Amino acid sequence: MTLAALAACVATSVAAQTPSSPPGSPEAGTTFVQVGRLLADPQTGVVQRDKTLVIEGNRVVEIRDGFVGEGRIVDLRDSFVLPGLIDSHVHLTGQQNPNSRLEGVTQSESDQAMVGARYARRTLMAGFTTVADLGAPNESIFALREATRRGDVPGPRIIASGEAVSIHGGHGDVNGYREDIMHMFTSESICSGPEDCMRAVRLQVRAGADIIKITATGGVLSNTAAGLNQQFSDEELAAIVAAAHRMGRQVTAHAHGVDGINSFLRAGGDSIEHGTYLDDESIRLFRREGVYLVPTLMAGDFVARIASGPDNFFTPAQTAKALEIGPRMIDMARRAHDGGVRIAFGTDSGVSAHGDNAHEFALLVQAGLTPLEAIQTATVNAAAHLKLSAEAGRIAPGMPADLIAVGGDPLSDVTELERVQFVMRGGTVYREE
After folding, report:
1. What backbone phi and psi angles, to 5 degrees, belong to 136?
2. Helix and strand counts by DSSP (H, E) for the chain
């Protein structure tokens, strides 16, 4: 059999085994979810009262007035219901701790997938039914993505970048180990020069990346004193964006320094993660191109607290950058919001603890967003940013039945979202208190 014929057979076999329905689909039948207060479309901000969501299989088919239905009924008449939340920046296969540097060279990719299964479940239970994982070993995260899609592992819908595209020696490469160790663990997504960086993008697409994540500037947690400014050349950035777009992939950039932010935006990049040192020119470029900012305020808060605390486990290089970056991020988000930049919710969880994702809402409000605006970042905005508006961010007929419930009113107190009591994903109830 020729290689081409073998590939065709494999593709046919995989397609035959792939379910057409979302993960965790319940048994055939109708579920009636009776809702006291319903924020079905956060874009409008309209809260409806006394509604029943009619769910068949894994999708909402109707929203009826009053409390109706018989048979399979979910009673949320005393609750506030809204769409499942979206976190646009997580790292499911690990979590910062004093042993993180050791785990990087002792855990296998299979180990990391198992760790990711634990954190995927924790994230789902916190009310996040969709996430974008922006940096993990390819084999680990792509396997976890497929497992949650099939329903083998309880977790959110995962949009995955796999390994980040980075420069040799930059944030995203292996740093701070013996030279032979670093050579052993450097991935194929590390590149130098426009041609090589196009190669790295194409290999990530071939490996299964839904989105391309790059590290346009230095970062806090890379163990190197290489600063926080631009690391790719302008020519490399242009080559990366062009290569990704030709293959139908968005490009999002980890970026702190303003030079890296603005160069990436001029190159046609699709979104910025962090954005710490953005300036007026950045805001103009964001608005001109309609680019989303994912502020990850929890990451800044976490690294600043660790670096300044008595139990600091960061290296000296990490500590210096954490103390520089952390305190600036709330003000950055405030300036971006005041400037009319589109904001999508993202936490960088895995830096901070998985399951605590909803604390980002309080930080966004501290940065000047209203509670409704903060909720919009994690629903309609994040869905638009990730090109998922037909699948996530709203509760409407035809949409997947992804919804959560809290006891109080998050439009009055956004910290209610830190106390999720009910989670449904794809018509299956995962949490009910």
Report:
1. -165, 160
2. 15, 17
The stretches of 367-414 forming alpha helices (DSSP H) are: 371-376, 382-385
DSSP per residue, 210-260: SSEEEE-B--SSSSS---SSB-S-HHHHHHHHHHHHHTT--EEEEE-SHHH
Q: Which residues face 56 on adjacent strands?
A: 30, 59
pLDDT digits (tens, 9 = 90+) for 189-216: 999 999 999 999 999 999 999 999 999 9
Residue 203 burial (CB count, 10 A) = 18
Calculate the CA 276 to chain-centre distance: 18
302 contacts: CB under 8 Å, gap ≥ 6: 96, 326, 351, 352
H helices of 19-157, in order, are 100-106, 109-125, 138-150
Residue carrying structure tokens 């994702």: 357
The token pair at 31 is: 């579920």
User: For residue range 295-308, what is the model confidence (pLDDT) as tens digits?
Assistant: 999 999 999 998 99
Residue closest to 23 by CA, chosen among 112, 156, 120, 167: 156
How far apart CA 380 and CA 384 sit, in angstroms, is 6
Alpha carbon dihedral 153, 104, 216, 298, in 10-degree steps, equals 60
Distance, CA of 412 to CA of 244 (rounded, Å): 42
Residues 182/56, Cβ–Cβ less than 8 Å: no
Kindly report whether the global pTM for this prediction surpasses the value 0.85.
yes
Which string of b and e fits 62-89 if b means at least 16 CB within 10 Å? ebeeeeebeeeebebeebbbbbbbbbbb
